[in-house]
Design goal:
The chain is an alpha+beta fold. It has 16 helices and five strands. A hairpin with a 2-residue loop joins strand 2 and strand 3.
């Protein structure tokens, strides 16, 4: 059994009964935390026990994961471990000293958790989409900028204003929301790529969303005059985040972490549009509120953020328009080309012939038209199979293109029949080139060629019919030869000179 297959088995080793039990236990723990008073002695014990249990489950599962995803999971595991350790030290200092030093060892550990989470999310994002996705990055920038305006308005600005002259403790307090914003950007970027909604990725995203929600609420309340202690909800959210990470490593998809848009792709597009709409409106609404309240310094900050959002939005529109134009150009190219040989198709040939013949007449140039028909192609197909027959057509087209000049027009007219237009080349002057085409046929096969020169004031359709008659003569003469229509002389037709 390969490592990938072993990893796939390990990532889904929980039975349906095991999942039900894990979910029930998680709900019971979170419900117990929710109903306990904030000052209950058992409350921090239950929360820390849940964190330690989540870390134990995570460690037992993550060390057996495949190598290609191990670094992602261990980064998130480090986030989980440092959070649990920091929480234990925080509780110990609070109980023994009655307060927690800031900045102190717990700040170092908590700040390190952000960095571990960022590393894990960035690595996950690269695994989800290894290439460059400019549209997703711009969308991420727009939504993150909206988050910057919210966090800056309600958390960072009050912290700076209250601090006055910043000391180390104040600087640490400001670093927390800044790191939260980086996590928001990483999480939004992953959300744009997680179209298939794999359980493992969904649980990881839920864990980070719960953590960020609790963290930002805590920071917003800590700078508010209405702060009256930690509400019970925050401990529930933080603990739920740790439990979700432990469940994620056990969930289907944990061994691969490679999600692709599936049947929910259309829904994802709609959600992205809604999110962008809310993000674009967020900063102008806050700006209006700041102006109404007379907060001039805040209004100046929000004005700058509004400009950033508008610039990003215009960039996004520009990228979207360019993408639509490129797609339309590719579709026009595909409509004009034969998918098998890459040559112009019959519709393109008809348009090009009319245009090129008219242009050559204005310049006084001769034009030769030829039809190339692969000999015994049906028998070749029946003998070797249609796939080999397709290969023969493609290889013949490629070999012929190598012998032609840039101005020559070769097209697949239909089936095993090809049209060739030689602008500026009289019939007699085309013989050598047409013979070269006949001799470079691949796979030991042969081709019959009929050619005619366009007569003055002659419709190209008539010329094509004369070349077709010459082709039938070539087939009647035993195939694998070139036959010319002699309706035109070269006495008054010179070769192309420019």
């Amino acid at each position: 059994m390969s490592e990938v297959r072993r990893g796939a088995w390990r990532g889904t080793r929980l039975s349906s009964g095991g999942w039900v039990l894990a979910i029930v236990v998680s709900i019971v723990v979170l419900a117990a935390l929710a109903v306990m008073p904030v000052d209950a002695v058992a409350r921090p014990f239950v929360a820390r026990l849940a964190g330690v249990a989540a870390l134990a489950v995570f460690t037992a599962a993550a060390w057996r994961l495949p190598r290609q995803v191990r670094l992602i999971w261990w980064s998130l595991g480090a986030f989980l471990a440092l959070t649990v350790i920091a929480d234990l030290i925080y509780d110990y200092q609070l109980r023994t000293a009655g307060e927690v030093d800031s900045p102190g060892v717990t700040d170092v550990l908590y700040l390190a958790t952000y960095l571990c989470a960022l590393v894990g999310l960035v690595l996950l994002g690269r695994r989800l989409r290894p290439g460059r996705d400019l549209e997703a990055w711009i969308d991420t920038g727009i939504i993150t900028t909206a988050a910057v305006s919210l966090v800056g308005t309600f958390i960072i600005a009050p912290l700076v204003e209250a601090a006055g002259a910043l000391d180390a403790a104040d600087a640490v307090l400001i670093v927390y929301p800044v790191l939260d914003l980086l996590l928001v950007a990483a999480l939004v970027r992953i959300a744009f790529d997680a179209g298939g909604r794999q359980p493992a990725i969904a649980l990881l995203m839920a864990a980070m969303a719960l953590f960020l929600t609790a963290d930002l609420i805590y920071q917003a309340m800590s700078v508010s005059d209405a702060w009256n202690g930690e509400p019970p909800l925050l401990e529930v959210l933080w603990t739920a985040a740790l439990i979700c990470i432990a469940l994620a490593v056990l969930a289907p998809g944990a061994t691969a972490l490679a999600d692709r848009p599936g049947k929910h792709a259309d829904d994802s597009v709609q959600l992205r549009i809604m999110a962008l709409g809310v993000a674009v409106l967020t900063t102008p609404v806050l700006l209006s509120l700041a102006l109404w309240l007379g907060e001039t310094s805040l209004a100046a900050w929000l004005s700058f953020v509004t400009i950033v959002v508008v610039v990003l939005l215009l960039w996004r529109i520009s990228v979207m328009v360019r993408l639509i134009q490129d797609q339309a150009h590719r579709e026009r190219q595909l409509a004009a080309l034969d998918s098998l040989t890459g040559l112009p198709n019959r519709r393109t040939w008809d348009g090009e012939v009319t245009h090129v013949v008219a242009q050559c007449r204005r310049r006084g140039w001769p034009v030769t038209m030829a039809i190339l028909d692969l000999d015994h192609f049906k028998a070749f197909n029946d003998s070797h199979g249609h796939q080999v027959g397709d290969d023969l057509l493609a290889d013949a087209a490629y070999a012929w293109r190598q012998e032609l000049d840039g101005g020559d027009i070769l097209a697949r007219y239909g089936g095993e029949e090809f049209g060739l237009l030689l602008p500026g080349v009289p019939l007699a002057g085309a013989v050598d080139k047409l013979e070269r085409l006949r001799h470079v046929m691949p796979m030991g096969q042969t081709v019959s060629i009929g050619a005619a020169q366009v007569l003055p004031d002659e419709d190209p359709i008539t010329t094509f019919r004369r070349a077709d008659v010459a082709l039938y003569r070539a087939k009647a003469d035993g195939r694998n030869c070139l036959r010319l229509d002699q309706s035109a002389t070269d006495a008054d037709s010179g070769p192309r000179t420019n």
